[in-house]
Write a structure and sequence with these properties.
This protein is globular. It has helices at 2-20, 137-144, 275-278; strands at 59-68, 71-75, 78-79, 87-88, 91-112, 115-130, 147-159, 164-176, 190-202, 205-214, 221-231, 237-243, 246-254, 257-272, 285-303, 306-324, 346-347, 350-360. It contains three helices and 18 strands. It starts with a helix and ends with a strand. It is mainly beta. Helices cover 9% and strands 55% of the residues. The chain has a single domain (59-85, 93-360), classed as Porin. It has a 14-stranded antiparallel beta barrel. Strands 3-4 form a two-stranded antiparallel ribbon.
């Protein structure tokens, strides 16, 4: 190491000495001849980029596993069919664990200064281990089938100039208690989307405001969103958020190591369509599952563009109720709707851990 440093230092000295021995008989250049000169690309329109300094690495491919600890599900009583005198009494179900695979891909299809278009894929499953599933339909659904999501998404970042941009995302998900042998038809797709108009003030700050159609709190909702990405001048701290969906405050150790703290809303509306096994009187039920994850997350480069991500924290239950969809059609309740649920369940909070290996963008 000392030898390499000494050699480098001698090379620098030699280089300085060579440039210092310039021929002094050469006339000084007349820079006035360049007064009217311009850059060759001066007429080219300039655009802002989609990133700021020290932003968290963009994950191109993700393979992960999610694990939730012990919890209690107080499943509400439920009539077997509308108008039927048969019903399922309320039951307390003990969930030993809930776990499953997480897969994701997000690949740039078009990447230019004037715009970036990406296509993505996601898969998430939750398998339940229930101690006393009993005869309640919630125990049968969860213990026998679990919950799955398969989705496709498209993202467009369109800069308007050096300071302003549009960000749009559209997503379609197939959610339910289906298995690969008995899947659902595409008519049960659930659609989400976000549109944001924003400003990039400089290389350490970009922000924007928009609207999102989302199922993150379980049932369909329309909410305003705020984008805010900021890196401190010291480049040791930062904030990344699309609020209220997610927020993380970062401690940036270096370009290969980031620790963050924050939250993420996670949820979907899952179709419960295995009526044959549960012996229900109809099959237009959906589980409105929404949860708030308060977490610490550590991300580190293992080798070049391969990163490890580990997060752990509290899984706080937001919603775990069941809706009946008349004629199978989705409806909007929002935060202030009065439509009753057919089952108002209570799921206790628990801890969770998620680990993933990621291929990130250079």
């Amino acid at each position: 190491m000392i030898f390499k440093f000494s050699l480098s230092f001698l090379l620098v000295l030699c280089t300085v000495n060579i440039f210092a021995q310039t021929d002094t008989t050469q006339q000084e250049e007349d820079y006035s001849q360049y007064e009217n000169a311009g850059f060759a690309d001066s007429g080219t329109k300039r655009y802002c980029t989609s990133k700021i300094l020290d932003m968290s690495p963009q994950k191109l491919i993700t393979v992960g596993y999610d694990y939730q600890g012990t919890a209690t599900l107080d499943a509400a009583s439920f009539a077997k069919a509308p108008g039927s005198v048969l019903s399922f009494p309320a039951q307390s179900l003990r969930i030993r664990s809930a776990q499953g695979l997480r897969l994701g891909a997000n690949v740039p299809v078009i990447s230019r200064n004037s715009g970036i278009f990406q296509l993505g894929f996601n898969y998430a499953e939750t398998r339940y281990d229930i101690e006393n599933s009993g005869k309640h339909p919630m125990g049968t659904w969860l213990n026998n089938y679990g919950l799955r999501t398969v989705g496709l998404q498209a993202t467009l970042f369109k800069p308007l100039n050096e300071k302003q941009f549009f960000l749009a995302q559209a997503q379609a998900d197939l959610n339910g208690d289906y298995t690969w042998n008995h899947t659902q038809t595409l008519k049960y797709l659930r659609y989400s989307g976000t549109l944001i108009y924003g400003w990039k003030k400089h290389d350490r700050l970009m922000y924007g405001f928009g609207l999102s159609r989302t199922y993150r709190v379980g049932d369909l909702n329309y909410i305003p969103v705020v984008l805010y990405n900021y890196t401190a001048p010291s480049r040791k701290w930062g904030v990344e958020t699309v609020f209220p969906a997610r927020l993380q405050v970062k401690r940036i150790f270096n370009t290969r190591s980031i620790l963050s703290w924050g939250h993420e809303l996670e949820g979907q509306s899952y179709r419960l369509n295995n009526s044959g096994a549960v012996n229900m009187g109809y099959d237009n039920l959906e589980l409105r599952r929404g949860e708030l994850r308060i977490r610490f997350m550590y991300e580190r480069s293992l080798y070049r563009f391969i990163w490890l991500s580990v997060q752990s924290g509290l899984r706080y239950n937001w919603s775990y109720d069941v809706d009946h969809l008349p004629n199978g059609k989705e409806f909007f309740r929002g935060f202030f709707g009065k439509q009753p649920f057919v089952m108002e369940n209570e799921l206790s909070n628990t801890w969770y851990t998620q680990i993933s290996i990621n291929l990130v963008s250079p």
